[in-house]
């Protein structure tokens, strides 16, 4: 798989508080509009970004959202990574089950986000933080 992007197509923002979650949603909205995603696809990506930003803040103790406009052949897409240095996820299979939560949430953040995007990657280890990378293609 060959992906291309330029430095102007990438960025990063901190997720340290509730206001940053709102800013992340707004940034994803701008990027999906720039890519001319349909309203449905915009909503799916914004919702996934909101859930993963919240997880980054609540469970990871804060972190960063990185974005990249990507191209694969004639396809264009948006790739987002949510990175934290939190405690990590000890059981990935359990964490991806609908309804499972390690806190007070509904347990839909990871599994729900996975269903809303085309590509989903989860990298984590106990004590080493977590990186969730999602991509939606147009």
Distance separating the two termini? 16 Å
Instruction: Just give the CATH class.
Output: Alpha Beta
Order of helices and strands: EHHEEHHEE
The backbone outline, from C-alpha atoms, is globular
How do the strands and helices of this protein lay out in sequence?
Layout: E1 10-15, H1 18-34, H2 39-58, E2 63-72, E3 75-84, H3 92-95, H4 109-116, E4 119-124, E5 130-137
Antiparallel strand pairs: 1-2, 2-3, 3-5, 4-5
Helix pairs in contact: 1-2, 2-4
Pfam families: HATPase_c
EC number: 2.7.11.1
Domain Histidine kinase/HSP90-like ATPase: 41-135
Characterization of the model:
With 138 residues, the protein is α+β, with helices and mostly antiparallel strands. It has one domain: Histidine kinase-like ATPase, C-terminal domain (Heat Shock Protein 90). The chain has helices spanning 18-34, 39-58, 92-95, 109-116; strands at residues 10-15, 63-72, 75-84, 119-124, 130-137. A hairpin with a 5-residue loop joins strand 4 and strand 5. The longest helix has 20 residues, at 39-58. The two termini are 16 Å apart. 30% of the residues are buried. The mean pLDDT is 89. InterPro entries: HATPase_C_sf, HATPase_dom. Residues 41-135 form the Histidine kinase/HSP90-like ATPase domain.
Task: Describe the structure in brief.
It holds the Pfam family HATPase_c. One of its GO terms (molecular function) is protein serine/threonine kinase activity. With 138 residues, this protein is an alpha+beta fold.
